[in-house]
Structures are given as C-alpha cells and as structure tokens.
What we know:
By secondary structure, this protein is mostly helical. The chain folds into two domains: 8-269, no CATH class; 276-372. Helices cover 65% and strands 1% of the residues.
Amino acid sequence: MQKPAFILTNLILFSVTALISLVVVPYLALTVGFDWVEIGACIALIWFSGLSITAGYHRLWSHKAYDAHPVLKVILAVGGAMALQNSILHWASDHRIHHKHVDDNDKDPYSAGRGFWYSHIGWMLREYQSHRYSDYNNCKDLQKDKVVMWQHNHYLPIMLAANLGIPALLGWLNGDVLGMLLLAGVFRLFVVHHVTFFINSLAHIWGKQTYTDKNSARDNGLLAVLTFGEGYHNFHHIFEYDYRNGIRWWQFDPTKWLINACSWVGIAKNLRRCPEERIEKARLEMQLKRAQARAATLPNAEVVIGRVQQEYEALLQKMTAYYETRKRLLDMKKRKLVRSYEKLDLDFKYKELKQSWMLAKQRWIQVHRLQFA
C-alpha cells in the first residue's frame, strides 16, 4: 500500500534541529565553548517549555485535571508554543483521540502498536490522518477558552516570538546572540521534542503495567525523570483526570509539584484526584491477575488459585470497610462534629480497621511469596 505524502515542514524541522543539535552544537561546545549563562538559559527554557506541555497542554487542557487563573494559562500557552508542538487546541484534540482509541492502529494518532518509530515521530512525518483537523469537535470546551483560542489563532507569531525572540533577547543581553540561539533555541527545542515524544513511544513499551493491562501504557520511574513526571503512564491511562502521575511521595513528578505550588499561591484550584480506594483496587486486581496466571502453571494449580482468591477477597473486604469508615470520619470532620460520641466511636473503629487492613496486606504479600517462591 502506498504511504501518505511527507509533511515537508515537519520533515525539514526535525531534520534541521537534529543536525544542529547532534553535530553543530557539540562541535561548537568543543571548539568555542558555551558560557554558564547560555547553559543556564538552555536548562531553564527546557524546563519552562517542557512543563508548559505537561502542566498546560496535557493535564490542564487535554484532561481538565485542574483549573488555572488566566495569568497561569497565558504563561503555559506561551511556553507550550515555545515547545513547538502545535497549538493547544490541535495538541489536545490529538491527545483526546489517543486516549479514546489507545492502541487502535487505525484511530489512535500515535498508536504504539505500529512500532517505536511511528509512535515516537513517524506519525508526524506523513499525512496519515490529516482529515482530523477539519474540525475540533472533541474540544468544544476548549473552544470556549479565550486563552486557548488566542494562542490557536495567533500561533505562528507567538511561536516565533517564543522560539526566536526570547533566546535572541537573552543572547543580546549576554553578548552572544548566535550562541544563545543555537543552545537555548535549537538544542533546547530538540531535547524537549524528544523527551515529550518518549511519552508516546517508550512509555507504551518499557515499564510495568501496575494498574491495568487493557492498554500498552507502562509505568517507568526512569522515564518519569526524563519526561517531567509523565513516566507513570500506566496510572495516567486508567486515571487520566487525576492531576498527578506520580502518586507516591517518592515518585518524581515535577509537574504535580508545579501544580501544587500554583495552588498554594492561588493561581490553580480544583485539583482533581482519583479516590485512593479506586487506585488501590486497580493495583490489587492486577496483582490478582498475575498471581492467577503464575498459579495456573503449578502442579497444584487449583488449590493455589483457590487460596489466592480467598486471600484477595478477604483483603478487598477489609479495604472496603476501611475506606468507607474513613469517608464517614472525614465527612464528620467537615461538619465539625469533632467532640461527638459517634465521632469518637468511629475514630476508634477507623484505627482498628486500618490496622486490620495493613495486616491483611502483609498476609497478601506473604501468600505471594510462599506460593510462588
């Protein structure tokens, strides 16, 4: 079957930025050198444009995971234009289609099922699905957002001002416009492009399926470091409206930290979180599925599967009781029934159930180790 025509603009852009970043910039670094101002500006703009994609294009506009003040929206819209990944409206439309039809080779714009190269960059090099942009019906909400439409309607001048104007101004202030344009402009753009593209490619190939195996998305701590916290992709694909990707305190998710910081100063609000019980249940269901698959290979498979199922049901029962009691307790605190007898009794029951659930979790882990060691 004949392949679609190349998109020459994209082909030239990716080729030129790669050539400059992999050949010209290293050559100049070795022969002429870059000063610390240029290096610092490059790092700062990598973070600014990268986080504008993850906190802005992705979590704010594509998934509505939180609400942002207009000032924050404008900052993220400019930073997103600097990342040169098309307008918010265009990007969000693609991404919503991806989530709706993930791994469908005919409908998912960057389906990992078509291979690493295609999902990483190949889908942007040819006119595979250009018909998608005749309208943006899946983004009617974004078409009501003044900042989104301002950026969409004036994308070219905003993009040029961000990618050329800001580095050129910094270079002029530092006394070397060309050096700043090459390092903080082109090289920075190359880096941000490919770490973002890793979310579409590597994050669907490399890592663990912690919460679901119904799609190819993976959780990978190393990728989280490279992608501003987006590496916990298996979690994201099942709980896409959560403003977090890394839900544990030790998981690297600077996008989550940025959103939190913005909420502390009042420019972000209504941060959406998936209920902890749903997250825990999804994780346990995957553990059960894997345990059953391993048990099926054992000589005494029926006995082992029965025991595993029994322990799982006991754990689930205790977990449900714990979260129901915790919810009731939190509701009472919100209604300020702090000193009531009912609250004191519920508080005692909550602590008891929490201890019982912790013990059940430990027993569940022991069952895994004993049965499959």
